Every structure is written in C-alpha cells, then in structure tokens.
Amino acid sequence: MIIAFVGTAGSGKTALTGAFGKYLEENHKVAYVNLDTGVRTLPYKPDLDVRKSVTVEEIMKEGYGPNGAIVESYDRLMDEFDHYLNSILELEEKNDYVLIDTPGQMETFLFHEFGVKLMENLPYPLVVYLSDPEILKKPHDYCFVRFFALLIDLRLGATTIPALNKVDLLGREELERHKRMFEDIEYLTARLKLDPSTQGLLAYKMCSMLPEVSPPVRVIYLSAKTGEGFDELETLAYEHYCTCGDLT
C-alpha cells in the first residue's frame, strides 16, 4: 500500500509520516520515501531519499534563490525519474506500506511533471491532504479545503482524502465545531447562505454541488503527537486497496 502525504509548509507532513510509520511498524513492514529536496532532518530513516541525488542547499550555492533552487532540483530529478519510480515499486513489493513524504512546498509536487508522472505510474496510491486548523477561520475556509482535496485528486489522478492535522492543539468543543463544518454539508451550506460577501456567495454555490461532484470520502482527524486518527487512516488505506475504493 502506498500512502503519500501532501500539504502546505508547516502542515506537519514529515512529523506525521514518521509517527504514522512507527504506529504501522507494530504490525507491518513499512518503507519510507523522502521526496523533499530541501528538508534537513527527518524523524524517520528513509529507504529512498532524493537528497542523495540533489539538495536545494547545494543548488543555492550555484546562485539560485530558494524558490528557483526547489524548481531546479525537481528538474534534475526528472533525469532519474525511472530510478525513483522503480525503487518505489520495489519497496511496495517488499513492504506492507510505503509512506511518501512530499516537499514542504506543495506546489512543487502538484505542478511539476515529476510529482504528477510519479503518482500516475504508482499502483493505487492513496493521497492524504493535510490542512492546519489555523487556516479554518470562516465557513468558506472549509469549502476551500474540501474542494482543494478534489483538485489534488484531479491533478494527480489518485484518490485523495482531506485530513485535519494537529488536532491535539484543539479543545473538545473546537474540534467538534470543525467536524460539524466538514461533515454536515447541509449545515455548512446553510451557514454560507447567510454570508453576504462575494466569497460567501461563491462558497455557497460550490458547496451546494459538493455532494454531486465529491467522491465518497470522509475527512479524518490526525495528530502526530498523540496518534489520534491513526487507526482510522489505516482502515481507510485498507478500504482503498481492498474494497474497491469505497471510502464512505
């Protein structure tokens, strides 16, 4: 089973990859893949690490700025694409789980040919899109997260489940509010209908059609610190691979 963690910088991808991997190692063989050319330290030992080929730090010494170095690093990785694809496929054959830690700059993975081509050639990868509670301030923010997960699914051609990370930082009432906004589309739509702003109107129209365009997936709630949601994520991965992808 291949699980890729995707999210913006600071969303907790790397910490979650390490913590979820340790959880799985209690009963399964787990392999780790690091695709972040800019990361300096990892909480897990990668079985495959793109930094052995190129790093952002090395490229910046050539005169590139940080953003340019990130893009250039992936341009160079394309020269070794077959090596990385075949290596991940070999890890998938030898292990129960392969966990893929994607770049901190999510757009690098989503918009560069390397990330898209890789996901298209892997067998039934499951993508976990991590969002941070800090971005969820208004009703239309929840609409954004749900639709962005759909866009990742569309871009990568892989089943994508939205996940709220770092839930250990939330109080019980706050977490329940997030869950209601994510899970009760009728409630969210009703809240959006009361918003007279242009953003509110757009979000209302989008969320009104969410039940029609969204595949049968559910939001999960995770914490690398406490392990909350790990059992549900493992179950979702099993359902994805073994029960025809029905994630309701």
From TrEMBL:
It holds the Pfam family ATP_bind_1. PANTHER family: GPN-LOOP GTPASE 1, XPA-BINDING PROTEIN 1-RELATED. The keyword Hydrolase applies. SUPFAM superfamilies: P-loop containing nucleoside triphosphate hydrolases (SSF52540). It comes from the Archaea. One of its GO terms (molecular function) is GTP binding. InterPro entries: Gpn, P-loop_NTPase. Belongs to the GPN-loop GTPase family. The keyword GTP-binding applies. Keywords: GTP-binding, Hydrolase, Nucleotide-binding. This is GTPase.
